[in-house]
Write a structure and sequence with these properties.
By secondary structure, the chain is of the alpha/beta class. It has a domain of about 230 residues: 3-Layer(bba) Sandwich (FAD/NAD(P)-binding domain). It is built from 11 helices and 19 strands. A hairpin with a 2-residue loop joins strand 15 and strand 16.
Length: about 425
């Protein structure tokens, strides 16, 4: 078998892996990216492209267990757990359930806010300074509510978010319709998050890949890593077909597939695939001015210069590779409930992708204890694009022996031991 050598090998060619590669190249490191499929073919492709400090609150919240149990009876629910025998999933869900209390909710929200605020600022700077052509807009984002009860509950939560540096404005129904005339009547109001932003995620990935190559990085597609051998000073990556790579450092940005490395690395990586869906259309005649989250249905709506997307929802069904028509229809039904012109004239793409979900809704970023030649950069859940830039900065600072820009302790990789 052919053996190749590199300074740093990044495994995973999605938005997190490419961001890490770019930041390492900027520090003068030699970088090779190994991607099992095509660059940006996973969750980096079909998400709604929102950059969301507003999403600092984790999924594991007080009352979520009861809500999740009720939703299990509905295959079109925003959060759906397909009933089946899967011991790893049920252990993961038990960890999540134990965190559905105010203290753990606040701890995760505080750590997520620090990551999201730093990444939001850094990503905008990257777009400008590195010329990343991805339709970035400092647009803000609006939560839209059809019930006053739900609006009031989230308005109370916004008071806590303000202490974490996340600004918001509560809009009554009249203000919301003035700001977003694409909405139908009957809404109760909204919450505007001026610090949020949006971009085209596929164009961001393409721009990152181009920037990596321009700086001398290599990106090798169709290179699946079959096994890993690591110690504190060296890592050996055995590919399924194309030989091996030996490096001083490896960064595993393998998303929803990350748990497969637990045994080889001797560390628990409890990442579950959370399946999300989206439908992309040609732009309708009337589109929202900003990204919207239709809160009662947990559906995101984003419009770009050349497209329009409905997306989100969360399904735990393992690596089920089917496009479920019930869940796709739920996206369109939600849009019809809220929007005057809900669907574009032509569907361009129906998509699903697996998000890497950790029990505490925080990523795993940093070196593996006892095998510090390997660093993890995974578990970002629904916030891979939002957290990509700060993840890259943390990884690069660790590889290069620099002081991390923010405290990485909440993201340490051995916290689930």
């Amino acid at each position: 078998m052919n053996e190749n050598a590199a300074d740093v090998v990044v495994v995973g060619g999605g938005v997190v892996g490419l961001s890490c590669a770019l930041e390492l190249l900027e520090r003068g490191r030699e970088v090779v990216v190994l991607e099992a499929g095509r660059v940006g073919s996973g969750s980096s492709h079909g998400n709604c492209g929102t950059i969301t400090p507003s999403h600092a609150p984790p999924i594991a919240a007080p009352g979520m267990v009861g809500q999740a149990l009720r939703w299990m009876l509905r295959s079109d629910a925003p959060l759906y757990i397909r009933p089946r025998w899967d011991p790893e999933l049920w252990r993961w869900l038990w960890r999540v359930a134990k965190r559905c209390n105010r203290e753990d909710w606040l701890a995760s929200a505080r750590a997520r806010a620090a990551l999201l605020n730093a990444s939001r600022e850094l990503l905008e700077r990257w777009v400008k300074e590195r010329g990343l052509d991805c339709e970035f807009r400092a647009s803000g984002l609006v939560y839209v509510f059809r019930t006053l009860e739900m609006l009031e509950r989230h308005a109370v939560e916004c008071e806590q978010l303000a202490t974490l540096g996340i600004a918001s404005e509560v809009w009554n129904a009249a203000r919301l319709i003035r700001e977003e005339p694409a909405l139908r009547g009957g809404v109760a109001g909204g919450i505007f998050f001026p610090g949020d932003a949006c971009l085209r995620p596929d164009r961001l990935v393409n721009a990152l890949a181009r920037a990596v190559r321009e700086r001398g990085g290599r990106i090798l597609e169709r290179c699946e890593v079959a096994s890993i051998e690591a110690d504190p000073v060296r890592v050996r990556l055995v590919l399924a077909e194309q030989g091996t790579w030996v490096a001083a450092r490896a960064v595993l940005a393998t998303g929803a597939w990350s748990s497969r490395w637990s045994a080889a690395l001797g560390v628990r990586i409890p990442v579950q695939p959370g399946k999300g869906y989206s439908i992309t259309y040609e732009r309708p005649a009337q589109v929202p001015q900003r990204p919207l989250v239709l809160k009662e249905r947990s559906v995101c709506v984003t419009a770009w210069e050349g497209g329009y997307r409905l997306g989100s929802t969360m399904e735990f069904s393992g690596m089920d590779a089917r496009l479920d028509p019930v869940r796709l229809r739920a996206l369109e039904d939600a849009a019809r409930d809220y929007l005057r012109d809900p669907l574009g004239p032509m569907r361009l793409e129906e998509w699903y992708g697996w998000r890497p979900m950790s029990p505490d809704d925080l990523p795993l970023i940093g070196p593996v204890p006892g095998r510090s030649s390997v660093l993890l950069a995974t578990g970002h859940g629904m916030l891979g694009v939002s957290m990509s830039a700060v993840t890259a900065l943390l990884v690069a600072s660790m590889v290069c022996g620099e002081t991390p820009p923010i405290d990485p302790t909440p993201c340490r990789v051995d916290r689930f031991a």
